[in-house]
Amino acid sequence: METAPLPAHRGRAALVALTGTRTPALSGDLALVATRTALAWIFVYYGAGKLFGSFNGPGLHRTAIYFSDTAHLHPGGLFAVIGGVIEFGGGIAVAVGLAARVAALALFGDMVMAMITVTWATGINSMAAPPGYQLNMALCVSALVIVVFGAGRFSIDALAGRHLGDTATSRVDRSAPSHVVTVEDVQGIPGYLGTRPDHGDE
User: Fold this and answer.
1) 24-48: string of b/e by CB count within 10 Å (b at 16+)?
2) Quick one: pLDDT band at residue 81, thresholds 50, 70, 90?
3) Using N-to-C axis directions, what is the helix angle for 76-96 and 59-69, rounded to 10°?
């Protein structure tokens, strides 16, 4: 007759589940999807605002002026285009998981540059313009997660990796020798299984 687990055992199991450091594969992949979605949402929003003036964004002209006057990046127009492309294109790439590590590294650098040139001097929670660096720091760390762990299984990178892995495996199988080495093939080799050659063969 089976007995129900004791409440103490249930409590211990719950404590282990809460404090354990091993992450199930599916949970890790879903967490990466959530991280990618948040990054894409924010960076596509700001990147589209810089490049196209979308979402009531400044557009290229005003962004160029801001980069020149506030961030002291010259020429402002060039850096406005670079920043917009990194944020808009990098956000889309992270969203679908295409070259996600490279895209996330570019987004990480974009936020580091924003902190160095503008927001770090204003502190972590500036109430006046320009804003503080709290958002830049959060986005930096989130992008770094994708750089370290990749996009996860729910991504184009994962599909490409599986395809490349299957292709490499099939190539190895085709190039492998068809002859299988048997015991009879190696019994005549001196030293096989600890044997010594006869004195007559020396």
Assistant:
1) eeeeebeebbebbeebbebbbebbb
2) very high
3) 120
Residue among 162, 42, 175, 49 nearest 34 (CA): 42
Distance CA 114, CA 134 (A): 11
Q: How far apart are CA 67 and CA 89, in angstroms?
A: 19
What is the token pair recorded at 69?
Answer: 């006057």
Q: pLDDT band at 176, cuts 50/70/90?
A: low
Asked if the bond preceding 7 is cis, omega within 30° of 0, the reply is: no
CA neighbor of 77 nearest in space, from 88, 66, 91? 66
pLDDT in the model for residue 172: 58
Grade residue 193 by pLDDT with cuts at 50, 70 and 90: very low
Q: Cα Rg for the chain, rounded, in angstroms? A: 29
Query: What pLDDT is recorded for position 11?
Result: 78
Report the C-alpha gap between 44 and 48 in whole angstroms: 6
Q: What is the pTM of this model?
A: 0.75
